[in-house]
Every structure is written in structure tokens, then in C-alpha cells.
Design goal:
The protein is 24% helix and 14% strand. By secondary structure, the chain is an alpha/beta fold. The strands form two sheets. Strands 1, 2, 3, 5, 7 and 8 form a six-stranded mixed sheet that branches. Strands 4-6 form a two-stranded parallel ribbon.
């Protein structure tokens, strides 16, 4: 099988964090212990051009780990695959079969705890023509903000299983498939440098950044709108059964940095 919402673009002294409380982006504090000659421990967005263009890497492979009870929805992974194929200039994009890892059993997780989990469990690293990315789904919520996911390294996203349950419970709530598909796509959007992430190369071709909500688009119908990652708000901005797409401004930004 071939096989991502106040936000954590949430954006340090050693072993401390600096948060932009309206974003789903989190800057790493530690840049050691990478198992590849390619650094996977940089700020989200730094690898945007490597993801989108074919200049350095012609292929992308995505590893997914999840804790018991929170296996990713297969249709949501298909949706992520379609999104990446639509926007990345690659000869192949492969989402590996998700792997179950041991439950940590925490109610909440900090970004540093997520990074430690990646260090324990990640197996795929960038080499030759293949850029490797990592996703982990944990059995709790994010400690700092009410969000579905965070981008916490230049090739890494984390998602919070209990937040998915919050978002998909109750009358009129969106489906698990739809919620996960939007979340997976949204966090990968941050890895691609959206919206206006410093030093990502994905510069805004025209100003469309939400001044009150960090690295997010000001178009409330866009995938990168800040409320798309909030479990308590996402349903208010969904129409019909469609997965929100990127607006023209976000697409223009990606295309200017090697994307489609």
C-alpha cells in the first residue's frame, strides 16, 4: 500500500523551548545525535526546497510510527500521498506501512519528549537520492496548545491521538478520515515552509500571513488557516466532504521554491 490544528507552527537555550502560541511549528533545541550525514534535526521549513524540487533528491520516503489504538486512517494516508504528489517534483513518493510502537501512556507530551521518541524509534534517514521524513502518532495531547499536530524538525511531524478523538466526537463532528487528512496535509505544509517560515526559502510572493496566528494563511478556506489544526474549531470551517486545499497564494509560494 502506497500510501498531515491555536497552532504549534507553534513556534532556546539548551533543553528549553520557545513557543509562538498561535502556531503549530516548534523549533528544536538540540541538533546532535542525527544518524545521517543529512541533518534531520533542524528547524521546520529548512528542508522545504529539498522536499519540493528534484535538484538534490528525486524521491521521498515517509516512515510512520503510532502508539496502540491510534493507527492512521488509510484513506487519510492516501489523501496525504495525493497531496504530496500534487506539490512535490519527485519521481516517487512512498509512504511506508505504519508500525506500532509501545504506548508511552502519557496524558500530555512536550516537544522534547516527542523528539526523544523519534530518537528511539526512527529507522529511515536521508541517503543518496531519497529524502526521508518521519511521522509519529502518540496516545495523548500536546502539552502547550490545543492542536492536532506539530512540525518539530525539518523532516518530522507529530500527531496527537486524543486530540483526534476530541475533534471527531459529538454531533456533526468531522470524520476521523477527514480530520486526519487535513491534519497530515497541514503539518506537511509547514515542512514545505508555509506560511512565510524564516529561512525556508518558501517566501511569500504576496503578503497573506495571519498576523495574529503565526505561520498560517489569512484565508479561512485554505488548508494552512490556523483553525484547521484546532480540534475544537476545525468543523466550523469545513464545507461538504471536501478536504480543504491550498489557496492561490500558498501555491504560488511553493512554486517559487521548487514545488508544483
Amino acid at each position: 500500500m502506497k500510501i498531515i490544528l491555536q497552532s504549534v507552527f507553534l513556534c532556546s537555550l539548551f533543553l528549553s523551548l520557545i513557543f509562538l502560541t498561535s502556531s503549530c511549528y516548534n523549533n528544536p533545541a538540540d541538533t546532535e545525535n542525527d544518524e545521517s550525514s543529512y541533518s534531520h534535526l533542524q528547524n521546520p521549513g529548512i528542508s522545504a526546497n529539498d522536499f519540493m524540487s528534484s535538484e538534490n533528491f528525486s524521491k521521498v520516503v515517509i516512515e510512520i510510527d503510532y502508539m496502540p489504538g491510534y493507527a492512521p486512517n488509510e484513506r487519510a494516508l492516501d489523501s496525504l500521498q495525493a497531496f504530496l504528489e500534487q506539490r512535490l517534483n519527485k519521481t516517487s513518493i512512498t509512504i511506508l506501512e505504519p508500525s506500532e510502537i509501545s504506548a508511552a501512556g502519557q496524558n500530555t507530551y512536550t516537544a522534547n519528549e516527542i523528539r526523544n521518541l523519534e530518537q528511539q524509534h526512527r529507522n529511515q534517514f536521508t541517503e543518496d537520492e531519497t529524502l526521508a521524513a518521519y511521522m509519529i502518532i502518540v496516545d495523548g495531547r500536546f502539552e502547550q496548545n490545543n492542536v492536532l499536530g506539530i512540525a518539530y524538525y525539518n523532516t518530522s511531524n507529530a500527531f496527537f491521538g486524543v486530540a483526534y478523538e476530541d475533534a471527531t466526537s459529538g454531533f456533526g463532528a468531522p470524520s476521523r478520515y477527514r480530520t486526519e487528512a487535513i491534519s497530515f496535509r497541514h503539518e506537511f505544509g509547514h515542512l514545505l515552509g508555509l506560511v512565510g517560515i524564516p529561512n525556508s526559502g518558501t517566501d511569500m510572493q504576496r503578503d497573506h500571513k495571519d498576523a495574529e496566528h503565526g505561520s498560517h494563511c489569512n484565508d479561512n478556506s485554505c488548508l494552512m488557516y490556523w483553525a484547521m489544526e484546532r480540534p475544537d474549531l476545525i468543523e466550523q470551517f469545513l464545507v461538504g466532504e471536501e478536504i480543504p486545499g491550498l489557496d492561490a497564494n500558498c501555491i504560488n509560494d511553493l512554486q517559487a521554491n521548487g514545488g508544483k
